[in-house]
Amino acid sequence: MLGILGGMGPLATVDFLAKLVRATPARRDQDHIPTLVCSAADIPDRVASILGQGPDPLPAMRAALARLEAGGATRIAIPCNTAHHWHAALQAGTALPILHIVDAVADDLVRCALTDGPVGLLASEGTLRAGLYPERLARHGFTCLTPDPDGQAAVAGAIHLVKAGRVAEAAPILEAQALSLTAAGCRRVVLACTEIPLALAGAGDDLASLMVDATDALARACVAACLADAVALPLVA
Amino acid sequence: MLGILGGMGPLATVDFLAKLVRATPARRDQDHIPTLVCSAADIPDRVASILGQGPDPLPAMRAALARLEAGGATRIAIPCNTAHHWHAALQAGTALPILHIVDAVADDLVRCALTDGPVGLLASEGTLRAGLYPERLARHGFTCLTPDPDGQAAVAGAIHLVKAGRVAEAAPILEAQALSLTAAGCRRVVLACTEIPLALAGAGDDLASLMVDATDALARACVAACLADAVALPLVA
To answer: Which of A91, A149, B131, B146 has the fewest beta carbons under 10 Å from its own?
Structure first.
């Protein structure tokens, strides 16, 4: 049973689950992946904590993980990029394998077979400050480019708009920042915050073809891992 | 913590979760309702069981409910109409209150304040055969009307199309059956299978204003119940 440590935010978790269903080869209910989701919306703000402006979310994340373990999850995914700042700490506390969203994105970028130019990042201030992407993508030979300070402030504001349900207002802000990154030489722009694809779902084909959606990458990595599990052993807890 | 006994089907559960998020008054992640979802896609087919053509899904539903209890759920909802055939059996096995989707629909119909004409039902063959709606809606003074046998066969086929991801093909079939029910005198048509609103999401305003979406009604009933819980006691397990 796939365990989803979610709720960061709640709409992003729903978007992840929809992408999980779509990524699963299925013709009837029973072909889908049994999934246990903890939408722990009460987890303290991850970005505020990384910036030293809020409480540590790790205890609440550990409590949600314990609920998933108690419910019989056998493999964990976290549809929130910023939360991966605590990936190692969470993994240290459980025997269940926790997929890493940046590895899922790296697999996507490797499949694109791009060798020149940096990878653009649209991410929360917390994800950037924690250095999640540059360090982990460097292992695959990728360098990263982020918006300038004004652009990053715009991205952060757009993420908050999505969390408040004001998705339509966030879209043009994020599109402009994605285009700035491609103008600066990025061959791909990673939507490295799970709120961002919610706003860019209606982006035109030209822009969509340049974007790597971390939520979708994680969903496809989950399907691949669970189908491999199902071959190795029955999908029961 | 709200527990969702889901996966019947998986996409309908995602639709329910999206409606739950939208129905919640929230400006930030932490305003949302902590939710534990078991998307138990491996539960045997409910309709086949009611028609005497498949195994009993109750043991698998009880196992999913046990996972939710183990994970700390304090209140349960089931975003699948047909599964409510086993509502009483599930409720008998747990101290956690299980909301009833037909009661949520009845509340909606009462709010509409319609006193004349029957209520149309677009539902699975299992829901109709189990008599879930007529019996429970009669307590509120409503009578029900269902499609004729050919129409009902078309509805059943459309539900299977949605489960196979062929949503666009299902839409015109369901729209035609909804219009037949209104032509026969129904003032409201209940989308009494959680696959059906997935197909009718793009219906025109004229038709949409006549439809009562059971998924949405259940989501709003959950929000009301959980907000009342939060006033009575903190929302922790």
So the answer is: A149
Q: Which residues are within 8 A (CB) of A1 and not within 5 positions of it... i.e. 6 or more apart?
A: A34, A35, A36, A71, A72, A73, A74, A75, A235, A236, A237, B67
- B5, B39, B193: which to substitute to probe chain A, counting the most A Cβ within 10 Å? B39
pTM for this predicted structure: 0.92
Find chain B residues with C-beta within 8 A of A163's C-beta: 27-29
Q: A63 to chain B, minimum CA–CA distance in Å? A: 10
For residue range B57-98, what is the model confidence (pLDDT) as tens digits?
999 999 999 999 999 999 999 999 999 999 999 999 999 999
> Is A193 tagged catalytic?
yes
Q: ipTM value, please give it.
A: 0.90
Burial A122-137 (b: 16+ CB within 10 A, else e): bbbbbbbebebbbebb
Domain A2-100+217-232 has CATH 3.40.50.1860: yes
pLDDT higher than 80, residue B236: no
Domain at B102-214, CATH from 3.40.50.1860, 2.130.10.130, 3.90.226.10, 3.40.30.10: 3.40.50.1860
Q: What is the mean pLDDT of chain B?
A: 93
